[in-house]
Design brief:
The structure is a homodimer. Chain A has about 200 residues and is an alpha/beta fold. The radius of gyration of chain A is 17 Å and the shape is globular. Chain A has helices at about 15-25, 30-40, 45-50, 60-65, 75-95, 105, 125-135, 140-160, 175-199, and strands at about 1-5, 25-30, 95-100, 115-120, 170-175. The N and C termini of chain A lie close together (about 10 Å). Chain A has a single domain (about 1-199), classed as 3-Layer(aba) Sandwich (Rossmann fold). Helix content of chain A is about 60%, strand content about 10%. In chain A, helix 2 (about 30-40) crosses helix 5, helix 3 (about 45-50) crosses helix 5 and helix 7 (about 125-135) crosses helix 8 (about 140-160). In chain A, strands 2-3-1-4-5 form a 5-stranded parallel β-sheet, sandwiched between helices. Chains A and B meet through strand 4, strand 5 and helix 9 of A and strand 4, strand 5 and helix 9 of B. Strand 5 of chain A pairs antiparallel with strand 5 (about 170-175) of chain B, so a sheet runs across the interface.
């Protein structure tokens, strides 16, 4: 089974994803691991910093995934996205795992045992987490959340032709402020086990 | 505990809500019961048919709920909405229950033990249900779903100042096609029990 987890900035989604992976004894892949994988594939750190999560032209992506067209002539930002999407497909073939972000829900949409999750929370809950865990001063939290969420939404909407954060784009959406981050992880594990049992 | 369930037309949300209520041994209130309650409160069936779920002026609603203003001068559609909202508040005071639709999540937003749920499903799943259970011919399912969902969204967005179907408007959103209607009811019951345990 593959569990993909998208999340609003500051909602605790990455931390929840790690707990879910630990509790299910699944492999865990987040942005950092994907970046390392891209470096192995020949992308420099500088390139990744400059071009990561910048959308380009979705028609080119469709062409790429639907045929044997090479990425040689794509702009660098799209080359990087394509490399990450390929790595996500490889990860999915290697066994049970939890993947955070990067349109993994869309890339793996035809996988027979896929659970797609989105984590969100009210602004106040996220601002408190950003202050406590990332040291973002409260007067900057609103701006920081908006900037990061805008970037994630643009990237997702561009490549997937779905809407980031819309309930209809995912199997399961949860407000992490209701059960807390540990409780939310528990709810996702329960859902994944129910899915496994009913299949 | 109060569980409110909003749903896309044809997603099985009403049926799921009934199963959740039965499994938790909670009272169950859906549109029909609310309509009956309104008739008891003096609204005729004709009035309900004509004015039900038609939004009006949300400022008037805020005025109404935040003060002792009477509904005497409101247009009929809003009088009916106000009567239903009052009935929802009464139901919530009478004990554990599941309430389907009617902005109940918003009306009861300050209730300490509230779980707000939204059920959706892909068009194909919903069309097949509408055909099988409601006899809607396949060539009309798209139009029927759009019409009903538009009406629900307009009503919800008007009174709540939130967005119908947006993940951020609810604690828990589920695609009922993934676990099926029975499995989705089971997932909601599991979530409610987890919520109860963690509180």
């Amino acid at each position: 089974m593959i569990i993909t987890i998208g999340r609003q900035y500051g909602s605790g989604g990455r931390y929840i994803a790690k707990m879910v992976a630990d509790q299910l004894n699944y492999a865990f892949f987040d942005d950092e691991l994907l970046k390392l994988a891209c470096q192995k594939a020949g992308f420099s750190e500088e390139m990744i910093r400059q071009f990561d999560e910048k959308p380009g032209n979705s028609l080119l992506y469709s062409t790429f995934v639907n045929s044997a067209v090479t990425t040689d002539n794509l702009p660098l930002n799209q080359k990087l996205a394509m490399a990450q999407f390929e790595i996500i497909e490889q990860l999915a073939r290697s066994g049970n795992c939890v993947i955070v972000g990067r349109c993994a829900d869309y890339i793996l949409r035809n996988h027979p045992d896929l659970v797609t999750v989105f984590i969100h929370a009210p602004g106040e809950f996220r601002a408190a987490r950003l202050e406590a865990y990332y040291g973002v001063p409260r007067q900057l939290t609103d701006k920081t959340m908006k900037k990061h969420d805008r970037k994630r939404a643009d990237y997702y909407n561009f490549f997937t032709q779905k809407k980031w954060g819309a309930s209809q784009s995912y199997h399961l959406c949860l407000d992490s402020s209701v059960l807390g981050v540990e409780g939310t992880a528990e709810a996702i594990v329960a859902y994944a086990r129910l899915r496994e049992r009913l299949n």
